[in-house]
Amino acid sequence: METPMIEVQHLTKRYGQHVALDAVSFSVGRGEVVGFLGPNGAGKSTTMRILTTFMAATSGTVRVGGNCVFENPMRVRKRLGYMPENNPLPPDLRVGDFLRFRARLKSLANGEGAKRVDVVIGQCGIADVAGRFIGQLSRGYRQRVGMADALLAKPELIVLDEPTAGLDPNQVRSVRKLIRGLAGDHTVLISSHILSEIEMTCDRAVILHQGRLLASGALDVLMAKADTAVVSEVRAPLSDVKAWGEKLALGQVECVEQLDGYVRCRFANATSADAREKIFGSAQERGWLLRELTRQTPSLEDLFVNLTRGKEDGK
Amino acid sequence: MSVFRTLVRRELSAFFQGPTGFIIIAAVLFLIGLGFVVVLTGLNGHATPMPVTQVFYGTYFFWLILLLIAPIITMRSFAMERASGTYESLMTAPVGDWEVVLSKFTGALVFYAILWVPLLVCSLVVRLYVGESAVLGPGPMFTSALGILLIGSLYMSMGCFASALTRNQAVAAVSSFAMGAALFFTGFFSYFTGDRSDLISQIARHVSLANHMESFSRGVIDLEATVFFISLTALFLYFTHKVVESRRWK
């Protein structure tokens, strides 16, 4: 079997008394785009810092491309493109000079380095700011400069810590597109605390919560574990609607009367695929007006609630 | 090697990207000039058996520049990178810890060396008026420069160490100033202890920076002083490397 790109086993990191990571294990195969998901303080950045050889773990092993990050940091760094949290860049350099400086640090030969700088400038769409000081750039451009740096040495593994944090929707979309374009040629690990963000860019997710691994696997499998509620609004008396909702037996129903004679029903856990069809059909049978029928996409919080609940039940 | 050169160039260029480097140069230029004028008017046209460079060490100006400017040169080296976070991208690039430490030290030392170029010009001006003399001959000039460089490397390594300990530039500057001043003033004990041969007065004589510099300015390469400066520099660079490395076992 091919060695996985990232192999994390029983990774633990303690800061004094505080346990930042508690026996986390997961692996990432070559060419995968994996999302690292968790609320702030879940241990995402800590894991990434250990993975990128910046910090050492308290215990456990981390291998990147078969190389231990503690024993062979140089080998790991040569295969790695990393954009740290908040994307720190020197404000006093021009974009082009910065990338050329980084190319030399990454031991790219002069000709090769210049070529790669041109390529990543094109890839990340920063040609029009190449001559400007990094300190004068907008956040979106700075983010792309950081990504250009991560891509510079054609690394096998690209690690991006919250690449879309603080960007406006247009910038988020362009960064997302860039990340999707990297799939296949590179293994990509990105972190985020926004579920939809990961959903749109990644095939797999590793979910961390308070330093523990909550779940890891294909996104659709994970998402199936989350509540998918269906919300509908029908025009009928509240008591009738309540009885109807229970009869449908789609799970827990909450009904709230609206001011204009409609009743809003929320069917929690309506995971079966035809829940909406069923609701629509039976409302139509009764001759009720239906003005809304929505499947609510679960938020990260919903997913967490379900995953943590599942864990506790199992114990 | 080319990575090391790249890093040193980056360190040096950082001084000149903003006003910092130029402000330091201007301040030092003013102090050197002032010191030189004070020395020349003090001599008042009289012949002196001492080389002018030695007279210059005798004034406060040399030590003022060394003690005050060294912390300012080195305070940003590690502290600023750590505060801004660029330290993380630097230390995850394929660059060794020693390369980082030595490049920061070398960058600071080269900038420090640039600061003293005006002193050379001052000496040449005097030579122009006084004419060729043993006092300003190539020998003392060379050893003086060597002495300035050696004592500078000690203070730069001390400053890099202080800067590596913190992410706050002000804290780095104050602690490296404290270390530098402590070392300087310890040497003053030798004035009180004189030629006594007990342990304390011997130590005081051996750490006296002023004593060490004096022989350099007379045109003598003092082996004891050279070993003193080089070994202390190496020690502080070793400490700095340990601090840089410590993030991996903390």
Instruction: State the total count of DSSP E strands of chain A.
Output: 14
Strand residue percentage of chain A:
25-35%
Largest sheet of chain A: 6 strands, mixed
Specify Rg of chain A, calculated over alpha carbons. Answer: 24 Å
CATH superfamily of the largest domain in chain A: P-loop containing nucleotide triphosphate hydrolases
| Quaternary assembly | heterodimer
Number of domains of chain B: 1
Which residues of chain B form runs of ≥5 with pLDDT under 50? Answer: none
Question: What's the story with the biggest beta sheet of chain B?
Answer: none
Please tell me the total number of domains of chain A: 2
What level of helicity do the residues of chain B show?
over 70%
What does this structure look like?
The complex is a heterodimer of chains A (315) and B (250). Chain A has helices spanning 44-51, 73-78, 95-105, 110-123, 139-151, 169-182, 195-201, 219-224, 238-248, 275-285, 300-314, and strands spanning 6-15, 18-28, 33-37, 59-64, 67-68, 80-83, 157-160, 187-192, 204-209, 212-218, 230-235, 253-257, 262-267, 289-295. Chain A has 315 residues and is of the alpha/beta class. The two termini of chain A are 33 Å apart. The model of chain A has no long low-confidence stretch (mean pLDDT 85). Chain B has one domain. Chain B has helices at residues 2-17, 20-43, 52-58, 60-74, 76-84, 86-91, 97-115, 117-130, 138-164, 169-186, 189-193, 199-207, 209-217, 223-246. The chains are: A alpha/beta (315), B mainly alpha (250). The interface between A and B is medium-sized, with 29 and 24 residues.
